[in-house]
Amino acid sequence: MVPHLRTALKGALSDLELKMMDATPMIERWFRMEWQEHTPPFYSSVDVRNSGIKFAPIDTNLFPGSFNHLAEELYPLATQAAMAAVEKYCPDAKNLLLIPEDSRQNQRYLQNVDHLAKVLRLTGLNVRLGSTSPEITEPTAVDVGNGQSLIFEPLHFNGRRLTLDNGQFDPCTILLNDDLSNGVPEILRNIHEQILLPPLHAGWTTRRKSTHFSIYDAVVKRFAKFLDIDPWLINALHAKVSDVDFSNPDFVNGLAQTAEAMLKKIAKKYKEYGISDKPFLMLKPDAGTKGIGVTTIYSADDIRELSNKNCGASCLLKNGLAAADILLQEGVPTIETVRSSSAEPVVYMIDRYVVGGFYRSNEQRGLDENLNSTGMQFTPMPFVKQSERSLSDLNTAHNRFYSYGVIGRLAMLAASLELEQTDPNPDFL
Amino acid sequence: MVPHLRTALKGALSDLELKMMDATPMIERWFRMEWQEHTPPFYSSVDVRNSGIKFAPIDTNLFPGSFNHLAEELYPLATQAAMAAVEKYCPDAKNLLLIPEDSRQNQRYLQNVDHLAKVLRLTGLNVRLGSTSPEITEPTAVDVGNGQSLIFEPLHFNGRRLTLDNGQFDPCTILLNDDLSNGVPEILRNIHEQILLPPLHAGWTTRRKSTHFSIYDAVVKRFAKFLDIDPWLINALHAKVSDVDFSNPDFVNGLAQTAEAMLKKIAKKYKEYGISDKPFLMLKPDAGTKGIGVTTIYSADDIRELSNKNCGASCLLKNGLAAADILLQEGVPTIETVRSSSAEPVVYMIDRYVVGGFYRSNEQRGLDENLNSTGMQFTPMPFVKQSERSLSDLNTAHNRFYSYGVIGRLAMLAASLELEQTDPNPDFL
């Protein structure tokens, strides 16, 4: 089930959209069967690109940080999904501890935390915020910027349980909203009696994009066979390149060759589908998020130029993680625009439910660029109302968000498998 | 979790409302624990009365028939809940067969079917309508009255499975929207390979209000102890009277005595709570729905008057079921009004989720009368928007629908236990 949200997309439905819409009952069944075997992450968000010919997920986030950009009317859906997720782990829960990242200066992020906490409170749980910052030694009000404030409380770990308020607030479930780009806080390392969601290995200290997208390849292979489509239509080619060293000519040549081989593969696909665009790649750090260090590559020369700039890992990634490895990913140009700016849909999921979406747009960036950067703006997607579902208007008669919901869930399913496969303490049943 | 819907209720929060709101995390946990032990009905609706001092469910419907009166913005919530319910029974379902009651002339009812089918289709299931009417021998378009039509198809039973379209449409789940007031259609009697929801014994051929409310007594006893309140505050007294025969003076005297004893009990409670209203009872057939034959009783004389009218069972119940037994139920006056008419909230649930509500009002009826009768009107309850949640406005700052959601779910829990206890083929585990 994918809620009928209003997309900005105009024009005729693509063959792929039509195929997915027509196959809806089969696709929904396919996902239901998958969830019999695998456990979805507590929450996730997926950046999707739609070139008009193909769709692909380009980033899968297991600590979504923009709940404040979902249309408010979608909150009950998110709350109901969160309730279903919580009761799976802790039916007897009264309390939920939410641990945000330590970004107390970032009001945009704090508004996300505020909205997420509201959605969770509507389940009927007591929700309080715990801070991993050593600076928080007592309950501290933090200004959210819209007249609201959040109370961050110090965490207490007694060797067995993580609590607030000297053990008075003792949660069954701990929900992490910190992607651990800055490492795993010591206090979170020994939680065994309580359920930490998502688990620590969902953070960027463990996760690698190359692992995620390799697993996505396998998911897509099965799904594309089932739907009888070319898997390339819902996937972006990718390659991992290790031991980044732009000062080493051998490394730069190797990277340039890999890039050229990928560009050739894409050109072949473009020819097959009659696409006249110029193929390109996105170069990304293999770990880390928030679009840092993402660069568009059209040719081997672009790679050499990066090296000439003596850019090195530091200009690829500036958030403290070493960009030891990089991911080359097929660039999928976006045909979506919001107020004339290039835009990409972001699909939000809680448990196995699609609970909303919004557009990320950036007027400073082109349709072949990373939009997750300075200047980005967010546009919530509201529900299409029954009264608007005119047959003469393609954008309201059909749920064009459906395809995005399919791609989002395929990436989310890949993340489920990824968390299973990378679990340092797997359950042997 | 109870969505924050807009109630018509004005004025200060009652002590009971405040107590429930404050205890929300405990109450939600209580329900979650119950759903670990019991399976909710696929769907249900509960008529609730609020006297300002007390709340009580007065009717629990296991075949809700007014989905068209839910605010449209609540549909995604209903769809998500329906999806959770369906996947519990049939994760591999592609098709869902919906069997409405045979009321093809009743456009109000057909609009309910239309909306219910839309909610179910949004789960991604193929939904088609099967008719139990012998008149439907081929797919037949039925006018819904708003320019829409529904296709009713003949059912086919091959001795093992119920299908449409000569076996082409073979569902895993069959959803019944017929309360079986007119008996169990033969074709539904031998379904064993497929899941029929709700089961046949949820229909009025088996159900008895007295059984339901006796089980509700037991549910309330536990809940009231847990919440530390007087159980009477969330329950209506009731008594079953068998072998109705208004021509027999002994029967009439016995009924009058029972009524008097109940009125005395209520008067005592009224005195305890300083209520100056005059106690009254509702006399109802013990089986059957739609408010047929419901009469307000203020005294033993009112009972004798019924007998003098030589009314008999026929004026109690006119829909073909014999009113062999009747239920005397404490009358709970309603303080709710919509456009100056007496109104009562109706809570809609799918699986264990509250998915919406509306008001039933009736300008021809008083606050001590059955509103489910000629002249009734429906007013959907919309979501309260975040921007409206002003602290200065009690009706938007607090989710006053919450208490109704609690009462609705307590009655729904009682229905779950009722279906377990009345199951003709219980599972022995």
Could you describe the 3D structure shown?
Two copies of one chain form a homodimer. Chain A has helices at 15-22, 24-37, 75-89, 107-121, 209-227, 249-272, 300-308, 312-316, 394-397, 401-421; strands at residues 43-50, 55-61, 95-100, 126-131, 140-143, 149-154, 156-157, 162-163, 173-177, 195-197, 238-241, 281-285, 295-297, 326-330, 337-338, 341-350, 353-362, 376-380. Chain A is of the alpha+beta class. Chain A has two domains: 15-65 and 208-420, no CATH class; 71-202, Glutamate-cysteine ligase, N-terminal domain (Rossmann fold), CATH 3.40.50.11280. In chain A, strands 1, 2, 15, 16, 17 and 18 form a six-stranded antiparallel β-sheet that branches. In chain A, β16 and β17 form a beta hairpin. In chain A, α5 (209-227) crosses α10 (401-421) and α6 (249-272) packs antiparallel against α7 (300-308). Mean pLDDT of chain A is 91; it is low at 317-322. Chain A binds chain B through residues 1-4, 24-29, 32-33, 35-36, 72-77, 79-81, 83-84, 87, 91-95, 122-126, 353, 383, 385-387, and chain B through 1-4, 24-29, 32-33, 35-36, 72-77, 79-81, 83-84, 87, 91-95, 122-126, 353, 383, 385-387.
Itemize the secondary structure elements and their pairings.
The structure is a homodimer of 429-residue chains.
Chain A: H1 15-22, H2 24-37, E1 43-50, E2 55-61, H3 75-89, E3 95-100, H4 107-121, E4 126-131, E5 140-143, E6 149-154, E7 156-157, E8 162-163, E9 173-177, E10 195-197, H5 209-227, E11 238-241, H6 249-272, E12 281-285, E13 295-297, H7 300-308, H8 312-316, E14 326-330, E15 337-338, E16 341-350, E17 353-362, E18 376-380, H9 394-397, H10 401-421
Parallel strand pairs in A: 3-4, 3-9, 4-6, 9-10
Antiparallel strand pairs in A: 1-2, 1-16, 5-6, 7-8, 11-14, 12-13, 12-14, 15-16, 16-17, 17-18
Helix pairs in contact in A: 5-10, 6-7
